[in-house]
Specification:
With 204 residues, the protein is α/β, with parallel strands linked by helices. It contains 6 helices and 14 strands. Strands 1, 4, 5, 6, 7, 8, 10 and 12 form an 8-stranded mixed β-sheet that branches. Strands 2-3 form a two-stranded antiparallel sheet. A two-stranded parallel sheet has the order 9-11. A hairpin with a 6-residue loop joins strand 6 and strand 7. Bound molecules: 1-O-pyrophosphono-5-O-phosphono-alpha-D-ribofuranose (PRP) and uracil.
């Protein structure tokens, strides 16, 4: 597992605004998209490419076209990262996984799954919060079970507990995040974190 913490000053200032409890949903959505753009660029450094040639007005030269890519947001919160990916990679194929944590046990349950063909493809898994790691782990099982060749998780904030959980169960998954936070509180929320990402994104 590779763990990449994006400490670019732009990423860190956007994260600070997301952490700020007074940031209202419209601004939260905008900033989340901007931060997801930065994370996505980092996460796709080794995306598959195809060599090609191109005619400039002056000569023929070699170039690169992008290979196939799949993005899968985990509902709901991952939706806040999706537009960044579709804008950067307009040809991306998108699947959806609906996962919800039980408030008492923190165990995720899968309530929706709509995945495109994944055989041999690289998938970007979008979920801003890696807390216990249960949701991300269940999502990785779904993607790997559907044949994904590689999974990279884009997270805004990751807890050490969630990273360890994922590393044990899905050692080949890479994580790109803006922060590794201190840990989880007794409600399995990330501390300092930013609260409930889905609630802050959708004003619920
Ligand atoms: C949140 C978050 C993650 C999950 C992380 O989703 O978006 O999917 O919790 O927690 P974990 O690492 O302990 O599994 P939630 O279940 O609150 O659903 P929501 O996005 O619909 O609010
Ligand atoms: N889900 C969230 O939205 N926030 C947390 O801190 C943990 C899980």
């Amino acid at each position: 597992m590779a763990l990449i913490v994006v400490n670019h000053p732009l990423a860190q200032s956007l994260l600070t605004s997301l952490r700020d409890g007074s940031t209202p949903p419209p601004l939260f959505r905008l900033i989340a998209k901007r931060l997801a753009t930065v994370l996505c660029i980092e996460a796709t450094r080794s995306v598959s490419t195809v060599d090609t040639t191109v005619e400039t007005p002056l000569a023929t030269t070699t170039g690169t076209r992008l290979g196939p890519l799949v993005a899968v947001p985990i509902l709901r919160a991952g939706l806040g990262m999706l537009e960044a990916v579709t804008e950067l990679f307009p040809d991306v194929t998108v699947g959806y996984l609906g996962l919800e944590r039980d408030h008492a046990t923190f165990e995720p349950s899968l309530y929706y799954s709509k995945l495109p063909p994944l055989d041999g493809r690289a998938a970007l898994l979008l979920d801003p919060m890696l807390a216990t790691g249960g949701s991300a782990s269940a999502a990785c099982s779904a993607l790997e079970g559907a044949g994904a060749a590689h999974v990279t998780l884009l997270s805004v904030v990751a807890a050490p507990e969630g990273i360890a959980h994922l590393e044990t169960r899905h050692p080949n998954v890479d994580i790109v995040t803006a922060s590794v936070d201190t840990g989880l509180n007794t409600d399995a929320y990330i501390v300092p974190g930013l609260g409930d990402f889905g609630d802050r994104l959708f004003g619920t």
